[in-house]
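Q: How would the structure tokens look for this protein?
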Amino acid sequence: ITRRLVIKFARILHFLLGGVLLVFVYHAYAELEQLRDFEAPETNSSLEEWEFAEDAVSIPDYPDLDNLLKVRIDASFGQLDYFIDPESLSIGRDGVVLLTLVIASSRGAKNVMYEGYRCDTREYKTYAYGTTNNSFYTLPDSQWKRIMRETGKAQDYRRELVTTYLCDIYRIALPKEEIIRMIKYPSFRNDDGRMF
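A: Here is the predicted structure in token form.
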């Protein structure tokens, strides 16, 4: 192969590659022009304007203290015992987990509360408190409150309830049967260090 043939072949190859590159650039430019002229579809205003609509809540009967499920709460450090009334446990159409919670001290004192938990926003609302005559007192103007991380404090039980028993990792309420199973068999719960 002579040097002249090599040079000629190189020129032809250079010309062909240049043509391919030119075609590629042309098509890329055309695509950019189409994107520039593209009009984004209108946003779904109904989704943007969506607001949480809370279901009407009916206060359940006072719990039967002999029919409670004990909940393992590591944040209590053994200072308090926590129980849930399975008869009161429900998930509303609005996604709120409703339940009666009983907190008992070693001295026999008990706090009874009927509360709602929002998995999506990590909030809770106390609808009613238990009274000494085994009935509920309904709070007239209860508001949703943020569940704060209070490591080492007894109040941290709400965070543990939400992240371990009531909601999944996508912040969606678990089915009632799954919540009860997690409470009954805490050794099978998902201790995967989920972010709060």
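DSSP finds four helices and seven strands in the chain.

The mean pLDDT is 78.

Upvote if useful.
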